[in-house]
Amino acid sequence: MKVKLLLLALLVLPSIVFAAGQEEPTIYVIKQGDTLWGLSERFIKDPKYWPNMWSKNSQVTNPHFIYPGQKVRIFPDRIELVPKEQAAVVAPAQKSAPAATVAEAFQEVAAEKTYTLYGSEGFLAEKGFKPFGLVIGAQHERILVGVDDIVYTDIGTEHNAASGDKFTIYRKDISVKHPLNNEEMGFKIIPLGSLQLTDVEKKSSRAIITKSTMEIGPGAYLLPYKDARRREVTLKNTANDLKGYVVESYSGGSIIAAGDVVYIDLGSSQGAEAGNLLYIVRDVTIDQRYVEGRVDKLPQELLGALVILETGKKTSTALVVKSIDTIYKGARIVSQTK
User: Which domain holds residue 154?
Assistant: First the structure.
């Protein structure tokens, strides 16, 4: 069974010390569960180091599949995949004596690379989205409420609701338009907390706020309860060639950096999946005064990378995991660099 893993063609391993004068590499056989992300984390102590390496490399690497049984060459400054036509003639025990400690270290199975989804990232509500219900008022006519406060909703027994049912509370935020063509993408939805129904009538109910991360007031959206506990998203290869744009950020700012949550114009209808790694790139403009028709396109400039955390039909919520240069709203994202 194929194991989907990311191969980094040139991986700097400064913490590996080889014997003086050693020129031939150590050969390591990929095992079930191995991932070069995990190996880079173990030896570089930084699993997100790869974009720095890419930015200094004339050939920007793309994700590839690696499989158990494949061989890689371990050099003092890089890791290389052994081509299939060469793998059959490479001795697995090659250079095991002078680099025994390194080979032994690679016998451990590296953990799959994962990212944490906290449940507070929000999403873009696409065309046709409707909340299950609304907060229509609060006890004592309060405008803002928090934990343990009483509110009223327009959810009742005719909606198949019952006492004890839980709902997640959201705020309808700004309308989001595509930064390139001004197309309506939807509006931003920000989680505020949760509530539990206590007394249910036919078309309304009383509820108590059980969790509040931001101020809650009348007009807040209600959706069926979604557990906000941390969930791990495992890195996976893209099934399709994906191309799109960053259309908005959680913060609303136009400048984006590593650690920021963003919303992109790719969703399940385009084949996007949670865990997909996408590169953030910028096309380099050619000054036609100097090329004299000999050059029509320059290599893309790599700005960083993001990982999709959750998908909608045409949009997704993503986490920027690395930024080499300044990233702006409207930045291009691709699954394969050129």
Answer: 123-231
